[in-house]
Amino acid sequence: MSHVIEVQGLTYRYPASQANALEDVSFTVEAGQFLGIVGPNLAGKSTLCYALLGLVPQFFRGRYEGRVVVAGMEASRVPVHELARRVGLVLQNPFTQLSGARFTVEEEIAFGLENFGIPREEMRQRVEWAMEQVGIAHLREKSPFFLSGGQLQRLAIACMLAQRPKVLVLDEPTSQLDPRGTIEVFECIARLRAGGLTVVMVEHKLERLLEHADQLLLLAAGRVRAFGAPDEVLASGQFEACGLALPAHVQIAARFQARTLSGALPVTVEQVTSALCRMRPSVNSSWLRPPARELTVRRDGEESRLLAATPAISVQDVEFAYPDGTGVFQGLSLALGGAETGVRATHTRFVATGSGPIALIGENGAGKTTLVKLIAGLLRPAAGEILIDGQAIRQRTAAQIARTVGLVFQNPDDQLFKSRALDEAMFGALNLGLPSGEAEPRAREALARAGLAALAEENPYDLSLGQRKMLALASILAMHTPILILDEPTIAQDHPGVERIGRLNRELRGEGRLVIVITHDMEFVAAHCSQVVILARGRVLAAGSTRSVFAQGELLHDAGLEPPATLRLARALGLAAQPLVPAEFIEIWQHERPNNLGAQSSADEH
Amino acid sequence: MRPVGLYVERRSPLHALDPVSKLVYATCFALVPFVAGDLRVTAIVLCVNLSLLVLGRVLRQGLLALAGVGFFLGTLFLVQGMVYPGNATPVVRVGPLVLYQEGLAYALWLTARFLNLTLAAFVLLFTTRPADLVEELVHAGLPPRTGYVLLSVLQIIPSMAARISVIQDAQRSRGMETEGSLWVRLRAFLPVLGPLVISSLVAMQERALALEVRGFGAPGPRTSYRLPWRHRFAWPVRLLAVTALIGALAWRIMR
User: How close, in Å, is residue B193 to chain A by CA atoms?
Assistant: First the structure.
């Protein structure tokens, strides 16, 4: 097979930077292969994508050494528009990829083709084909400016597909997508690969990546830490060394030293299932099924104290439509937080009681962000009432509600404007009317909790996106609101960042504060949220404890979601118990499995 | 995000007419009263424009938009009625104020031309998407890059407005009051401006990258996805509009 991508000794430094973004990077990709690029924040993943398109160094300038050849063209020399005829690039933020000058979806897709002078008849065929590939043909007449994040991302991919590239480079193309949307994008890529497309994809969603990638490249601090077949890279130990976490099912496989028939580490849920089945043949026989085990949260005195202290939100028959006529809610009722007895009085079927954290999940456009904006007073319901601790919020301004409800937006760049991180963290507290002598210690404490204590004097725009998200969170933390709502906090966070957010959620819960998290990250929900609310098409499909909601597989499927990998693995193995995280699975599996494996495992441990 | 402009979504014969013909019509019929220099011609053209707004089912929107300039026109009558240099014949006397016939007639003449100019523009703007107009101008020979710049400028205002609203929401959720007195609103300006400027710069760089990989810099002829807008009355309308303008000129010369 021929190499369609060849990178040799690539070292690159951005013009204003003191350090190299890429350091001696070398690898090759054969035609038709799928290369997954993984790594922590600031690893140089996006820079490498730019280098494959010649944008580094042609667009960004800077110091460049080494050689990058893509589809037979040397990327540093051949003009970008020439490379772009054979190499496509999909960036993380789909909105900025729009031309900004086309007013329907199909015209937007055709924009690149017009620039390349493709005849109209061929353009029509290509546009039609590209829309079909990503499932947006029904949106052809819609303005790109009115699409949801997920629809926009599919449009951005369609724009590139229409250019019929030989190599497609995608930089976190599913970061804005719900689980169903993510699967659709990966399936679409798989179909295109059947036609010979070579794919390079930067992606944090490892489970999906491992299902499709032929090779993995692990980058950290600009250097290649591991490169090769996915099982080899995962087994190399470099993942953990770079601060990344193995996917839940791979952690389980590694713990039990499960192997595929060829002796490799299994990397997909199916492979792990088969490997574990082989280790324990009896598991598929229903008469030997392990009994269901109770995995419930203890309701001790501490829990009761927390419940009594946690604020309660009651959403009663709320109706809401946007000014353009897009209806979102019609008679939505939901009770969040608070003690059970208190919320029962609201007479709603959907109750997520307790001290949380409560996960608000659902596909793109389900109404999650609209709901939290209504709770924060940023939008007003057309009918119905929202009560916080029994008090209607209708008469209060958003700024007044902000004393009770802190909402951390998904994009930190929508709010950061100070030249020092500490000032930014103090902004909310000062708005509450606190003197700066009181606001500063609060802000410092919040920065410390967000892991930014050492960066208090830095300019927020010198921080990474993950750190800026943490700073936006810190500025809300410093306001000491009883309710905190986090919109997609784990996007752009690497594993340590996600763990920190999970830890913080637990701490806040311990302080009697109610945390609500909007997320598409089911592993985060499984590990860190005790309650879940599923929204779909403006309606609540389910609310309750995480385990009870995840147990309703069909309902999740209706909402375009899927349970966490650990639970899917348990189901595939026929376990009656419902483990949500690897530790629970390991406990059940060890407890139930035959003695010979237990003995082997004990020997391994010693 | 609402697109910029005065366009009103309707189904009408005027909406179906191609944008370039409407542009030719609006330009010619806005100029006719100036060229003819006659109030009677102006009155006829005004009636034609009003009829077209009825035909385009946008008369209500047109009159509502005109209501905004009503105050300005009222002032014009008052000032010209009192201080026009040729004033000689008093018409109305209210206390010390005297309005003269010559001044009022001159104000009527100015107003008629202004109204006509505005209504002719409305015939175009209320029934034509700005994007369609630019696209058609590109088909008619405007360089595609100039067309791109014009179209993206059309998007800047609504996209900025949308961003401002998001940023304001983010700051309100940090307790910043944006509702209340002028001072409160002014104080809320800086926390919106900072993120707006920076995010616009970031977005600009990303868009420049995206344009590069979408072949914007590619040399050679461009093609167009849209077919040129064809309408069976396109040429008759353009011809009629130009004839009216030439006719007005002839009227002026021969009078």
Answer: 8
**A392 shares contact with chain B (CB less than 8 Å):** no
Question: Using alpha carbons only, what angle is made at residue B37 by residues B31 and B40, rounded to the nearest 5 degrees?
Answer: 100
A413/B173 Cβ within 8 A: no
List of residues 6+ apart from A343 with CB closer than 8 A? A312, A314, A335, A337, A351, A353
A300 DSSP assignment: -
Q: What is the CB-side half-sphere exposure of residue A484 using CA atoms within 13 A?
A: 28
Among A residues 412-431, those touching chain B with beta carbons less than 8 Å apart: 413-418, 427-428, 431
Give the tens place of pLDDT for each residue, A320-379: 998 878 889 998 999 888 765 444 445 566 777 776 799 999 988 889 999 999 999 999
Which residue among B178, B214, B227 places its CB closest to the CB of A112? B214
What kind of fold does domain A3-244 have according to CATH?
Rossmann fold (3.40.50)
Closest to A382 measured CA to CA, from A322, A314, A313, A315: A322
| Each residue's pLDDT expressed in tens, for chain B with a length of 255 residues | 555 678 898 999 999 999 999 999 999 999 999 999 888 999 999 999 999 999 999 999 999 888 878 888 889 999 999 999 988 899 988 888 899 999 999 999 999 999 999 999 999 999 998 889 998 999 999 988 899 888 888 777 777 888 888 898 888 888 888 777 888 778 788 888 888 888 888 888 888 999 999 999 899 889 999 999 999 999 999 999 999 999 999 989 987
Q: Check whether residue B19 and residue B99 sit in a common domain.
A: yes
What CA–CA distance (Å, rounded) separates A143 from B162? 15
Task: Note down the domain range covering B207.
Answer: 134-213
Rounded-to-integer distance, Cα A7 and Cα A55, Å: 15
Domain ranges of chain A: 3-244, 245-295+577-606
The complex's ipTM?
0.79
Distances from the Cα of B19 to the Cαs of A97, A174, B56, B227, B231, in angstroms? 28, 40, 13, 13, 10
Look at residue B2 and tell me if it is in a domain: no
Cis amide prior to B191 (ω within 30 degrees): no
Tokens of A248: 């839940």
Torsion angle of C-alpha atoms A183, A189, A193, A194, degrees rounded to 10: 60
SS3 content of chain B, % helix, strand, coil (to 5): 70, 5, 25
Decide if A533 contacts A333 (C-beta within 8 A).
no
Secondary structure letter of residue B84 according to DSSP: -
The Cα–Cα gap between A474 and A443 comes to 7
> Which amino acid is present at A389?
D
Report the alpha-carbon distance of residue A255 to residue A597 in Å, rounded: 12
